[in-house]
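Exercise 4. Each item below gives a protein and its sequence. For each, produce the structure-token representation.

Item: Class I SAM-dependent methyltransferase (Streptomyces mesophilus).
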Amino acid sequence: MTETLAPQTARVRPALDGVPETLLWTLWNRACEARRPDAVLHDPLAIRLVDTLDYPFEEKLGPPHPLFAQTQGLRSLCFDRSVANYTARRPDASVVALGEGLETSFWRVDNGRLNWLSVELPEGAELRGRLLPEHPRHRIVPKSVTDLSWLDAIEDPSRGVIVTAQGLLMYLKPAEVREILAACAERLPGGVMVLDSMPRWVTKLTREGKLKVGKLTIPPMHWSMAPDERPKLHSAHPSIAEVRAVQLPPGRGALGKLVQHQYRIPVYRSFAPAVTLVRFK
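Answer:
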């Protein structure tokens, strides 16, 4: 697929703060990783987005960090592979990306048949619509993911649905996470959801305003889940058939191995989000 941005006459200044501004941090790290000749993630569109935006990335978010950049690249690749695995079996499926910000997964995994629905807060949706290429199989729904009416926008759930929630659910309240899981389990039989979670100590620091990346204070996170707590997700709805860990792909060098196998080493378990797949009956 040709990876070209929507036409622009000038650089675009993003008017974001709070949780929406964090999409710039994930974009920055993904682009920093993609610029490397030995990158774990091929994402030229992320590089072009960073070059298009009028935002002091390095000044505000700090210089490229080898751990953060590779971790972000591996996390995105992990979600890409989950989508690709599902659509390999159901090529006409819908992919519903919740709160994906300026992720460019559609242009990395499109099989020529899937339908992509991006559910994003209005300010993020507006920026996504201005910057990213238009495509007839890619639609944007400008609303909060907690407004479950986005489920009505899925054109034909019988063809299969995979819902992704990358870097999102930790900013929601626990009851809201359960409601989203229950609604998906109820309305998307045969579908799956791929999500990531953060440990309690990280979410606690954010609520205390003590977690920063560069000059950006990470907004409060309210939901956390340790890897060994995954079975609790079954209680969200009787139609949740399976909950299992999704291992990050192999990385580059010693840092890559550390990120991939961190959950086997207690002291390193909090370096990256834990990725989980939930399958619905």
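Check: The CA atoms of residues 163 and 207 lie 27 Å apart.
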